[in-house]
Amino acid sequence: MVHQLWTVVTTQRVVRNPVMRTSSKSPLKSSEPTRVRDTEPLPAELEVFVSRFMLPERREVRRLVRTSSRLADLAKVFPGAIYAIASRRGPAASRLHALSLVEQGAPLKSVARALDLPLWLKRLPPEAFAGRLGALPVSETFTRRVATRIPHAVQETAAWLETVGFATEACSEDFALWLGEQQLYAELSEPERAFAVLAAYAWFSGAPGTRAHQLIVVPWRTEIGFDTALCAAKSWLNRLRLVMQLDPGVITDPWLDGGKAMGLEFVPLVDQHEIIEESHAMQNCADQYADRLARDKCRLFSIRRAGQRIATLEIGPHPRETGVLAVTQLKARHNMPASLEIWQAAHMWLATQPRLKRLPPLLPPERPLKDETWEELMTPYRQKTGGATWLPAQATLAAFNGLDADLTDLARRSGVSSWLFT
Prior knowledge:
By secondary structure, this protein is α+β, with helices and mostly antiparallel strands.
């Protein structure tokens, strides 16, 4: 006998379900939920099962299974369905219809349809259900493939289910399947923080007409390894920072003068266009230096012979001599070691510089991110994902530092080691 209405019914007239027995004062006509007094304990085995549900829905589940043996059976074979009813998911009419179907002995498929739940959810244990059940994948392909992605450890299923739901909303079912098979769920986390950048990077990988897509070096695909994808997402985030922070004219002091030595030309790289061109031509990580350049930690130079790029040079503070500039990196194409000739030319060029001594500033310069560029970059993604509220609304340095920190923590959790996360 169903004595509980889990959402206030505000319609003027409600037709009673003939299958459901109600008290003389029908809860369907009450503006407050009718409470059932706990008079008898549940059978020990059923009580143990109910105790596996998370609070605060556990008490509601207990009340439900007390009212009907068929609801008790539903809880055992489809914990997600009983949780959806207990947590008041969806319209009240849909939940009442599902209760009626259960009492009639209808197939689980019909009950799942009434509750707008995918049938693959019945594979998950009670421990998987915590918090809001959002939209979940329903396609046949996902249903067929998801079984092998469900964690064996029940304590990991709640984080896994929340992540699958977020990944579907933030990108696609393919991304949700890919993310669901990763070994990441031993630690509980907020998927909207942990996977925000990864989801946006995966979405833009499939949006070739967007500007943000043009900044991706290694696109996401279903076969990509997690470590490769995470590093590619971090590289993409650094490129986003570059185009928002280093417009032409933002950096006016290259520290050292361009010039020539031993037939080689040294060209300063101080804005986003020059740096991205250098990175693309040399197949190196010059485009990952936006933060260091903006905070005056280094300067970059392109070394060329007859107009052809042959190496990239990083200038920074001398490791032992305070106030003196030195070569901190010098790499040929693909980050290969530079030749002896290039090193000799670099030191000869350095020896001619009148500003080789440079004391670091007491305070780092203020070089904020360009908010209108952030808005332009993210607009296509926000339009397709209901606003993408998991990404910062404004491009502040604090917000981007937060995204960096979340990616670094995800790298730690997944055991991904790269200089990008140092």
